[in-house]
Model the fold of this input.
Amino acid sequence: MKTKFLLSIIVSVLNLTMLAQSVDLQAPLPVDKSIKKGILPNGMTYYLHKTDVVEDVASYYIIQNVGSILENDDQLGLAHFLEHMAFNGTEAFPGKAFLNKLEKNGLVFGRDINAYTSFDETVYNINNMPTTPDLIETGLQILYDWANGLLLTDEEIDAERGVIKEEWRTRQTAFMRLFEQKQNVLFADSRYAERLPIGTMEIVENFNYKVLRDFYHDWYRTDLQAIAIIGDIDLNDMEAKIKAKFLGIPAVKNPPRRFVVKIDDKQELGYGLGMDKEIPSSSIEFNIRHDKSLGNQNVQYFREHLSTTLITSMLQTRFSALSNKVDAPFLYANLRHSDLTRLHNIFNVFITPKPNQQREAFTLAMNELNRAVKFGFTQSEIKTAIAEMNSTYKNLIERYDDRNHKQIIEGIKRNYLENAHLTDIEGEYAIAKELFEGFDQAYITARMQALYTNKNRAVIVTGVEEEENLTKEEAAQIIETAENNADLQPYEEEAEDTRPLLSGVKLNEGTIVSETENKKPYFTTFTLSNGIRVHYKFVDKEKNQVYLEAVSKGGESLIATDALSSVNLLPGIVRNSGLGVFTPEELKKKLAGKEVYSTFRIFEFKEDVRAGSSTEDVEAMLQLVNLRFTKPRFTEDAFRKGIETLKISLKEQDSFLPYVIEDTIYTSLWGSNNPYRSFMTEKDLPLLSLEKAKKAYSERYSNPADFDFFIAGDVSKETLKPLLEKYIASMPTTDTKETWEKIDLDWLRPKYDEDIYLEMETPKAQVNYRLTNTLAVNPRNEILLNTLVGILRLRYTATLREDEGGTYGAGVISFLEKEPEPTAYLRVTFTCDPDMADNLVAVMHGEMDKIRKGEVLQKDLDKTLESFLKKRKESKGSSNMHYFKEMKHYVLDRYNMDAPENFEDIINSITTKDIQKFMHKLLKNSRTAEFVTKPKVAN
Done:
């Protein structure tokens, strides 16, 4: 074994020597010249990028190189608190002045205006603001104030304490509690383990005002700040504006040093065991921490990054194949290599063992990992992974000019915070292709061995009380045994599969018998010789992106009720079975190098097939769609895996608080025996049947001619037509046409007002309010309903969050459904302090009642309607999916959603009186359900 290893290293060194002759590993990476970067004399950095992916808008960001890691012991949580205060008054915009101004111009707080705080940075954003002269100045002024002009008044600080307390309460889930238990191990007892951004509520509720202001003065300073403006701008003009405005901010004299925390190396295996009553299933993490350099990145760095990406991809494929085996001791195993902190990456294996199989699961995972360490990967595996990466690069290049602002800012943030290179993507790919030539088995094996270091390791177990959980000693022994396992053999792959994707499918190529042009909206309908109708629209707002959906009426309403439980397993069965003659692993290899997917879903009143691809891979997409209808695959092993997964889920149900709440609500509304509205329980297990699932699928997808096919995207008609004739017109069809049948979805009674008392680890109340009423489905009612939701969101932010300080935020959603009868749905949910729940519920109803009485603020209506106009304009200018939906609406709902009379004219006509009438109509004779979950308290 040692001889083989030595030979591998020698070959690898020779290979690297030859590679160095063609690739200069010390050369810098090519620069993305589309981004203008500069540094002002006061130390502030700026980035500018021009893109018209969304016309006439720009996004504004300020990146503060400041996070919770810089807090003193008496400041825990104040970096995050300061982020909140940036929205509560600045020198130029006291109170909520700038939020009000932006909202009047269609921006929405939370969607377009937001921020986040992490360990090492705080980033603020204003997305897609119109580039009028006034709003450009507003955007710059807000950045200026975020950099140097927060008011931090006593009153606003005190008002925000409650909001942050409720944010903490909302985030205190079982998963957060587990994270808090494992943070010392994950961060190896470093400062990071003591600086979670949310902080401690004792400090948040009681800190002295000066402590927050000191943190602001010390750390919000020009040498730790970068501003970025991305959008439809003139670069030179914007650069001049930045220099004129931001040069006046003085640099802080004698500032504290911005330190960066490096976690000390650990030779001993770290170990942590966490348990929570609301998480009754186990998991195991195996982590190896690696140092990350902040030095200039070159080709050498890029090569290591590429090889690591390939390795994690190949390992994930191996572990997925193991997971699909019925006798595997784990349900899932996932691998990733990602950022941990500013100076560290982490190589992570995450395992979900089957019940009482923690040791077996960890043993299998460690053996498979060490198989790769000892023997590397096959040439076929490497070839497949490189093909996938080539495909990724080609699509990135094709869509490079269509990147949205959020994608662009990610590279800028990494450049400023971590000195990551802003690389020209085409130049990067040219280097990557050269590097791929040297990615042989010897080199990849050497890189795998470099990833698998013998230091900075940790095992973190999420345990279960009734199981014998994996101990530190056992984990260490399993790792050592795997590393010295003489029985491990190289990974064996089956011979290359040369079968075509449509093996076993008889293609009786058909024809297009008619081609009809629809004018408004413009699209083409092809009628095929087998009766299938395909509606097609060319649109290249997103380059190299094509969408497909086939939709038919029927769904669960036509499936026997005793088969519905089995149908719920279908997505997992099909996913783990593969497609056509191919297993999931074989299918992945067959599609290597292609960007393509297909899936399906059976809803209550319809079923569909969805697919997508790059322009180049449309043929493969249509082949997959053909297979969904003609040769679906269902294996007994996939069914058994589904049953095992379900058993674990059922075990979790009784403890997992979100599930318990939803199950309680469902049982109250629909009873415990409604087959369409009940959660699965153990009593359903004997009823599950692979044959029932297969039969239901076959019935729902037996006749493709009963589906309307929609295709929109960057594919020409000339390219598409012969492919439709070959792969869609060839599918066997019948003349049968189906529609949905009415099923019982009525509540047991029209009104509910119940308090639900449950045991919970973190005391919190959760309010769930639901309203339904009969309402015609048409464009005006849809817009009125969405307008009401927008106004309620504004009112609840102002009252429940700001005035009462009672919740982090209230979620308000609505939707209209045509089946089984035209109905409107409105839902309000929020989490809060149990002691404040009754008062906040009264406030929630009070805002609805005010609207019913006509107390609708014109400014709230204006903000909401303007946000609709803004969002629609952006969608039409940048999204293929928008036109896909437009075509679908016209065919299925018989109206043009973009016609002025169905959108702009309605919006421009809506008055506060209309909203009052609509609220009154929605409330009258409505069915309402109010459930407030509260902690059960012992007598």
